[in-house]
Each structure stands twice: as C-alpha cells, then as structure tokens.
Design brief:
The chain is of the alpha+beta class. 34% of the residues lie in helices and 20% in strands. It is built from 10 helices and 10 strands. A 6-stranded antiparallel β-sheet has the order 1-3-2-10-9-8, sandwiched between helices. β8 and β9 form a beta hairpin. α1 runs antiparallel to α10 and α3 crosses α4. The longest helix is centred in the last third of the chain and has 22 residues. The radius of gyration is 19 Å and the shape is globular. The N and C termini lie far apart (50 Å). About 9% of the residues have low confidence.
Length: 334
C-alpha cells in the first residue's frame, strides 16, 4: 500500500531521494539551561538513518533558545503540509468565502488512497467533517476535497506570503500519486487506475522529492509558521484560532511524545514508497503560558529491504520524545 500505517499511530514512513546526510547544528542560547543541552538533543538524531532535520525554538519569558539541525534542508514532509490547507480554509472562512457547513460530495471521482474515513463511503459530508478527517485521521480524500475548495494556488500564495521558502505542495494528492506512478505532471489518473497500479506495486523510480508534484518543507519553515499560527497572528478572530488549535489536538500521536503536564499541538506525515521512507512531526507545545516550544522533526531515508522501517520509525519517535523532555527540564520554572 502507498500509505501503509495509520497516521494516528505514526509508526510509518515517508521517503525522499537519497543524498548524503547533511548535518549542520546551529544553536543560540538566550536563557539558562543545562550544560550541553543543545548537543544532547542533536546527538539524538545524528545516529538515525538517511537525512534528518530538526528545529526547536523555545520562547521562555521572552527569552529565546534555538536548537537546529539542517534547518533549511527541504525534505519530504507528507501529510504535515495539510496544516496549511486547514489554515487557508479558516482564513477564507473569516472572509466569508467558505463555511464549515458547506456540503462536499464524496465519490470515486475524488477518492484517494489512504483515506480511513472516506475511502469506502459515497455521499455528502460537510466541510467541518472533512477538516476533522483530514487532521485527526489524515484522510487523503478529505484533504483533496478541501484543497480543491480553497484551491492549491491560494495555499501556495499563503505559503509565499508568510515567508516560507522551502515549502512545496502538490496540485492534489491524487495528482502527486499519479506522477509518482508514472503520469505526466498535472495528470490525474483517478481513483481506480491509481489503486490498480498501487495494488500491483507498479511504482516508477521517481523520487517523492522532486520539482513537479511533491510535499516538501524545511524544519525552519514549519517553525516559522507555527510560531505565528499558534499565537493567533494568522487569524483575525479568536474563534478561528480556537478552531485551529482544536484541530491540532485531534491526532492521537500527540500523546505519544508530549511531556506530561504540557499541552501540545501537532500535524504529522508518513508514507511508505519503497525503497523510500520518511516521517515528519511538526507543531508546538506550551509548557506554561509564558513558555512555548515550536518544533519540527523530519527524516527521509532509503531502505531497499524494507526491514528497518519499523525500527527507524520507533527510534525517530523516541528521539522526538526525549528531546522535548530535555527542553521541559531546561525550561522548568524554579
């Protein structure tokens, strides 16, 4: 299967072209913290396979602490890009262009692989249900429905407007899958043909990191976005910010790595595209009202045998959890 693990369990993978791992840790200390905390966090990810990128920006009582590992390196982020689709929908809602009660039609014309909510259903739904399916279950059919409604161009313009330099999204998930399976860029093979090709494992050698149809981002871009979004800078109404935050608490993966007592927000991404794999976790965590960490973790790797994917995913998630525990310890109030 193309997306073989449920996103809410987040032990699956997404991949990109194999390049030598780029590691360039950069950190800035503007608060008291334990000695060598930066290197402790970076060390957690340097032993992982393939390419990794990490960015942690902690704002504690107006003091800033950055820990970065290849923060500008664009890697495949998978479904983590869906947070931009959500944001553009909510911004258009504030402008009166769309509504949570708008009716969307689900059928084979719009169906997409790896849609745990809508893959076997036909009928009508609302934009609210589609948004919740997109964020909680990472439903790809729901994503293509919402992306088509707000338009990919509007999402790209938003990404450019807020200064994200290494973030790229596909025309739709179905168009991206068609391209990866051998179609021309922009061509949509449709549900039936994509499913048949996937079932037969008829993948081409195309990399999911490409300049045609892809989902890539840098760790820096996600942190730049989340620092603005979670503090309400991208919305005009408090109610909209409340909806945005609620959507980012729906993924169950959140409680696998957020430290006890903290309150977190997340959107992750994962896919298997043998021999390519990748994972992404991005969002923010509030340790106290005056202490926030905005985070991104990306990993892309190749595994021709497919035997290491579960181990790599578990090691990655363990490193994410440990790193946030280190940050909590370093920013603990006296």
């Amino acid at each position: 299967m193309l997306f073989s693990l449920p996103r809410r369990q987040f032990t699956r993978c997404l991949t990109a072209a194999t390049i030598a791992t780029l590691i360039s840790p950069v950190s800035r200390q503007a608060m008291a913290k334990k000695p060598d905390m930066d290197s402790q966090i970076i060390d957690l990810f340097q032993s992982l396979p393939g390419q990794t990128a990490v960015k942690l920006k902690t704002v504690n009582q107006n003091q800033v602490w950055d820990v970065s590992l290849a923060p500008e390196l664009p890697l495949f982020c998978g479904s983590a890009f869906k947070v931009y689709v959500l944001t553009v929908f909510l911004r258009q809602m504030e402008q009166g262009k769309v509504s949570l009660t708008d009716v969307l039609r689900v059928d084979d014309r719009v169906r997409v692989l790896s849609s745990p909510v809508f893959e076997t259903l036909t009928g009508e739904t609302t934009a609210l249900i589609a948004l919740e399916a997109m964020m909680m279950h990472s439903d790809n059919t729901a994503t293509d429905l919402i992306l088509a409604k707000v338009t990919p161009q509007a999402v790209r313009e938003f990404i450019q407007t807020i200064g994200l330099k290494q973030t790229f999204i596909p025309d739709s998930i179905n168009i991206m899958l068609s391209y990866l399976l051998g179609a021309k860029s922009g061509e949509d093979w449709g549900w039936a043909k994509i499913k048949a090709a996937a079932d037969k494992n008829e993948r081409t050698s195309r990399s999911i990191v490409n300049n045609q149809q892809t989902m890539t981002a840098s760790a820096q871009d996600f942190v730049t976005f989340y620092e603005q979004a979670l503090q309400g800078a991208l919305f005009t109404e408090a109610k909209t910010l409340g909806i945005f935050k609620r959507m980012l608490t729906l993924p169950s993966i959140l409680w696998d790595f957020i430290p006890p007592g903290a309150f977190g927000y997340v959107k992750g991404g994962s896919i298997d595209w043998p021999p390519q794999y990748a994972l992404c976790i991005a969002g923010g965590v509030s340790f106290r009202p005056d202490c926030w960490t905005y985070y991104t973790y990306l990993i892309n790797w190749d595994d021709p045998s497919g035997k290491q994917r579960a181990l790599a995913a578990n090691q990655f998630l363990a490193a994410v959890k440990t790193s946030l525990e280190l940050v909590r310890s370093a920013t603990a109030a006296p």
